[in-house]
Amino acid sequence: MLWHLINKVIFLKGYNHRFEKDVKWGELLDRLRLGILTVEDYDFLDTRVVGPNLSIPVEGDVQLSYVCPTNYQRNRITENNFEDMLKKTHPMQGSSESPPENTVIIKGVFKGKKGGSEKSSQFHRLIYNNCGDDNVMMSGGTGRVDPCLKLSYGCSLMVSDFKDIEKGVVKGVTGKFIGIVLKTGCDFEVEIWSGFKINTVRSDEVEYIICERTKKEETDRTEHFLLKPKKFSAR
User: Fold this and answer.
1) What residues pair up with 208 in beta bridges, in sequence order?
2) Using CA atoms, how far apart are residues 83 and 131, in angstroms rounded to an integer?
3) What is the pLDDT of residues 142-180, one digit of tens each?
4) Residue 145 phi, psi dihedral angles, 5° rounding
5) CA angle (104 as vertex; 101, 105 as ends), nearest 5
6) Computed from CA positions of residues 59, 149, 178, 87, in that sequence, does the dihedral angle turn out positive or negative?
7) What are phi and psi of 27, to 5 degrees?
8) Are 214 and 176 in contact (CB under 8 A)?
9) Is the pTM of this model over 0.85?
10) CA of 211: how far to CAs of 16, 17, 158, 163, in Å?
11) Residue 156 CB coordination number (10 Å)
12) In whole angstroms, what is the distance from residue 95 CA to residue 103 CA?
C-alpha cells in the first residue's frame, strides 16, 4: 500500500564519485541497472572475463578480493579466512601462550525488548556461531549488523550505519582497522574460538575503534576516523 502512495521519483544524475577513476565502467553499470546494455558493452565485459590462461595471484603478493552474489556467501568466505588466520598465528586451546594482540572479537550484547534483562550466555553463543550480518537487521531500517565483529590489524572495513557529515564519515566509506580503545576499567577476556585462544571484549566495554581511511591516491595524507558502539533494536 505504501509503495503505491509514491507519486514522484528523483534520479540523481550528477557526477558519479564512485567511478571517477573508471568512468566507462560506471556508465556501463548505469545501463546494466536499466537493462539497456549495448553490443559494445557486452564486448567490453568479455575483455574482463577470467580465462583458463590467467593465473590467480599468489597470496602475500597481492590482497585477494572475492566477489559474491549474497551476503551469506561473503560471510562464509570471511569466516573461513579468519579461521585460517587463527590456525597460523594463535595458540591452541590448552597452550600456555597468550593470544597475539593483533586480533580481537567484539561481541554484541543482546537484551530483551524495551531494556529488558540480558539474554543468557547460551543465547549469545547461538547467535555468534550461526548468524552474520545477513541475518541481523536493524528494526525500522535496512541496516545490517554483524552480531560478532572479528577484527585483525589491517583488515578492511566499510562503514554501514554512521553519519558524521563534517568529517566525511558516512555509509559506504572504507578503511582498515588499526586499533581499539576500551572504556576505563575494562579489559580483554581470552576465550576459545574454533579451538584457538583469542582476545574478546563486549561491545558495551568498547569506547571506540580506530580506522585508517582508504586513500584515493598513494600520495594522499593518512587520515583516521573513530567508530563508537551503538544501541538499537534489531530483528
Assistant:
1) 181
2) 16
3) 678 889 999 999 998 888 877 788 888 888 899 999 999
4) -135, 130
5) 165
6) negative
7) -65, -35
8) yes
9) no
10) 25, 22, 10, 15
11) 12
12) 17
Residue 176 is which amino acid?
A: K
Q: What is the 3-state secondary structure (H, E, C) of the chain?
A: CCHHHCCCCCCCCCCCHHHCCCHHHHHHHHHHHHCCCCHHHHHHHHCCCCCCCCCCCCECCECCCCCCCCHHHHHHHHHHHHHHHHHHHCCECCCCCCCCCCEEEEECCCECCCCCCECCHHHHHHHHHHCCCCCCEECCCCCECCCEEEEECCCEEECCCCCEHHHCECCCCEEEEEEEEECCCCCCEEEEECCEEEEEEEHHHEEEEEEEECCCCCCCCCCEEEECCCCCCEC
Joined together, the cell numbers standing for residue 160 give 554501514
Say if residues 40 and 24 touch (Cβ distance below 8 Å).
no
Q: Among all chains, which residue has been given the C-alpha cell 593470544?
A: 99
Q: How confident is the model at residue 232 (pLDDT cuts 50, 70, 90)?
A: confident
| Mean pLDDT confidence for 38-62 | 73
Could you tell me which residues are beta bridge partners of residue 169? 164
> Which CA distances in Å does 183 have to 148, 189, 203, 217, 231?
19, 14, 10, 35, 16
To the nearest whole percent, how much of the chain has pLDDT over 90? 46
235's grid cell:
530483528
Q: 226 pairs with which residues across the strands?
A: 210
CA 21 – CA 26 distance, rounded (Å): 9
Output the nine-digit C-alpha cell for 210.
580506530
